[in-house]
Amino acid sequence: MTYKRRPSKDEPLKLRMKDLATKHRRYGLPRIHFLLRREKMVRAKSRTERVYRELGLQLKKRRRRKTAAVVRVPFESAKRPNEIWSFDFVHDYVDTDKRLKCLTVVDDCSKRSPGVLVDYSITAKKMTEYFDALPRLPSKLRCDNGPEMTSREFMDWAFRRKIEIEYIEPGKPIQNAFIESFNSRIRDECLNEELFLDLADAKKKIERWRKSYNDRRPHSSIGMKTPKQFEEDFGI
Fold it and tell me: Is there a contact between 87 and 106 (Cβ–Cβ < 8 Å)?
């Protein structure tokens, strides 16, 4: 007599977990568990962790350079969305080895990214035009002392717009922790994962990731809500 093996009750969970881990390759156990629980596939984190380890889905840590210890300098914290935005630049390359420059922007309170400007070159003029094209602007912008940020054109634009510019101390990116965190996410989950054929392809893929980041990615710092959900709680 041939006996058929009874399917494991974990099989649907394993299939869905593999699907999530494939789709979100840099999501770890906490976010995978949150997504599964939201879909009512699990309740106890211990079950998620057991299956997660059985499937060998643990993330491999990427090497980081050691940095010198710095003293954290307190800045004003945003009390609600659209009070303070932080911004910076990150760089990458397209398939032809041409360098990409990305202006990254994040809301300090909601963690929403209002936009990412992607181009081969971004001048102060192009940067202010991009900010002007956004539906709304904050009361304050926080950034480093790069040439675009300290240019007369940018400072004149901020004065006309009645936007306060708060510069971090030179050589202390930790003072701009929100955009540093966002940049590590876009680097880890998008730039390191995607191959960009050209500028148009890079814009398309980065914008797709940004929308997913805003609408679907849960954030532990805002109670495992998405930025979209968090702002909806404020009636935005």
Answer: yes
Listed residue (145, 141, 147, 154) closest to 172, CA to CA: 145
Centre a 10 Å sphere on the Cβ of residue 228 and count the other Cβ atoms it contains: 16
Helix (H) / strand (E) containing 84: strand 84-93
**pLDDT greater than 90 at residue 3:** no
- Cβ contacts of residue 25 below 8 Å, gap of 6+? 189, 193
Q: How many CB atoms lie within 10 A of CB 181?
A: 14
Region at 148 (left for phi over 0; alpha for psi -120 to 50; beta for the rest): alpha
Q: What is the pLDDT of residues 173-195, one digit of tens each?
A: 778 899 999 999 999 999 999 99
pLDDT of 202 strictly over 90: yes
Cα 133 from chain centroid (whole Å): 21
- Range from 5-19, 52-66, 212-226 that averages highest in pLDDT: 212-226
Among 178, 181, 126, CA closest to 157: 126
Cα-Cα-Cα-Cα torsion 236, 141, 217, 208, nearest 10 degrees, comes to: 100
Using CA atoms in the order 143, 163, 230, 108, what is the torsion angle rounded to 10 degrees?
20
- The pLDDT value recorded for residue 235 is 85
Is-contact 189 87, C-beta < 8 A?
Answer: no
The order of strands in the sheet holding 84-93 is 115-119, 99-107, 84-93, 140-143, 164-167
DSSP 130: H
